[in-house]
Specification:
Arc Repressor Mutant, subunit A; globular; single chain; mainly alpha; 3 strands
C-alpha cells in the first residue's frame, strides 16, 4: 500500500484538505487555510503538492495577485476515492493500517473540538456512540443509500452564521455468524 493513492489520501491533514474541496468547491490556498486554521501555511502547501502529484486534486485556475500567481484547487470527480480493485486487493494487515490512519484522523478531529475555548456536546449536537442492530443485506443497503442521499443534500452548503462545520464518521462492521 506504500506510495499508493490510498497512502496519499489517508493522511490526516490531506484528508481534511480533500474534505474542504468536496462537492465541486474551488478554493485558493488562502480559502483552504481559512477552513483549516490550525494547519501552518508551509504544511498546507506541502500537502497540496503531494495531493497534486498524486492527481487527487487539480489546479483549475490561476490568477495574478501582487506579482505572484494564486492557484485555485478543485477535487476532480472520484479522484479522492480508492478504487474497488485496490481496496479489494488489500490484505488484512493493509486494511488495519488504513483503518488506524483513518482513526487517527477521527481522533484529531475530536481533539480539536474538545480543545476549543468553548464546547458543549449537547448544544453542538456532538458526541460519540455505537449502536448494534440487525439488518439483512438489503436493509443495510437501503439504509446506507438513504443516509448517503441525505448527506449529499448537506455537502453543498457553505458556512454561514447559522451553519457550522460538522463532521460525522461512520464505521460499519458485520459479524458473519
Amino acid at each position: 500500500m506504500k506510495n499508493s493513492k490510498s497512502d496519499v489520501i489517508l493522511h490526516p491533514v490531506r484528508m481534511r484538505i480533500i474534505q474542504t474541496l468536496i462537492n465541486g468547491r474551488k478554493l485558493t490556498v488562502q480559502q483552504i487555510g481559512e477552513r483549516l486554521q490550525d494547519v501552518p501555511q508551509a504544511t498546507l502547501y506541502r500537502h497540496l503538492k503531494k495531493l497534486l502529484d498524486a492527481n487527487v486534486i487539480e489546479v483549475v485556475g490561476e490568477y495574478p495577485v501582487r506579482g505572484a500567481v494564486e492557484k485555485v484547487y478543485s477535487l476532480p470527480e472520484a479522484s479522492a476515492s480508492i478504487s474497488v480493485e485496490e481496496f479489494s486487493a488489500w490484505s488484512a494487515e493493509e486494511h488495519m493500517d488504513a483503518f488506524m490512519r483513518f482513526m487517527v484522523t477521527v481522533l484529531a478531529d475530536f481533539e480539536r473540538y474538545v480543545h476549543q475555548e468553548e464546547f458543549d456536546l449537547l448544544r453542538d449536537g456532538a458526541g460519540y456512540r455505537q449502536m448494534t442492530f440487525y439488518a439483512s443485506d438489503e436493509e443495510l443497503r437501503e439504509f446506507t443509500e438513504t443516509m448517503r442521499a441525505e448527506f449529499m443534500k448537506l455537502l453543498g452548503n457553505e458556512a454561514t452564521e447559522q451553519r457550522r462545520r460538522r463532521t460525522m464518521t461512520t464505521i460499519v462492521t458485520t459479524e458473519n455468524k
